[in-house]
Design a protein that fits this description.
Blueprint lengths: L2 E6 L9 H5 L4 E5 L2 H7 L6 E4 L14 E3 L8 H11 L2 E7 L6 H14 L5 E5 L3 E6 L5 E4 L4 E7 L3 E8 L5 E7 L8 E2 L4 E8 L2 E7 L1
Parallel strand pairs: 1-2, 1-5, 2-3, 3-4, 5-6
Antiparallel strand pairs: 6-7, 7-14, 8-13, 9-12, 9-14, 10-11, 10-13
């Protein structure tokens, strides 16, 4: 347990230095066309997983391949998250999966809600955005980033009582609802922002300005 894992998806809207980031990972899994991206960045994954319907590079012989029928009840990313958990990952970063086809992005956000309680950290990220679910009942500290927005969304009917401190717009004892995105595009006002809700499913999104 306590392993760090990265899942390279087949779509990365805003690239970042994945080769450098991969040095901090114990496990790297590519979903389908994510292998093409890994090859581009000189990354050798521990596993290639998916239905292999979008991969362009030759399927490697020296890397384990877990192939699934294209007609299935789970997305490639869903299966990849399950595989990282089986391998003992507690910190999981999903590289890409934001942007491009909106239905895929929504599916990936749903996967955050499905799996965030099964690991210490589960995050969707690319070079311009990061998204994660913040567990309720815990005070979360988010380090300030110059040039980044901080947004919060309730994926449940409500998140309450919500406290947001260390930001331009601060609240205490607030009720954030699913149908009113009032907590979008907040800004850091100190070295750290702290966020806490006692109930509900709270999505944090960090985005470059």
């Amino acid at each position: 347990m306590n392993k760090r894992a990265a899942i390279i998806t087949s779509y990365i809207d805003t690239p970042f230095d994945m080769r450098e980031a991969s040095k901090d990972m114990d496990i790297i899994i590519c979903t389908d066309g994510g292998y093409d991206i890994a090859v581009k960045y000189g990354i050798k994954p521990d596993c290639l997983l998916g239905d292999l319907d979008s991969i362009k590079a030759p399927v490697p012989e020296d890397i384990p391949v877990i192939k699934f029928d294209p007609v299935k009840d789970y997305t490639d990313l869903h299966l990849a998250i399950e595989e990282t958990l089986k391998l003992g990952a507690s910190h999981i970063e999903i590289w890409g999966g934001i942007g491009g086809r909106f239905d895929h992005t929504m599916a990936n956000i749903q996967l955050l809600t499905a799996f965030y309680k099964k690991c210490d950290r589960l995050i969707l990220k690319d070079g311009a955005n990061e998204a994660m679910i913040l567990a309720s009942g815990v005070k979360h500290t988010i380090s300030a980033r110059d040039g980044w927005y901080l947004s919060l969304f309730s994926l449940s009917d409500t998140c309450k009582p919500l406290e947001i401190l260390g930001t331009k717009y601060q609240v205490t004892d607030f009720t954030l609802t699913r149908d009113y995105p009032i907590a979008v595009s907040n800004e850091f006002a100190s070295e750290n922002a702290t966020i806490k809700t006692d109930s509900g499913t709270l999505l944090l999104v960090l985005s470059k300005m």
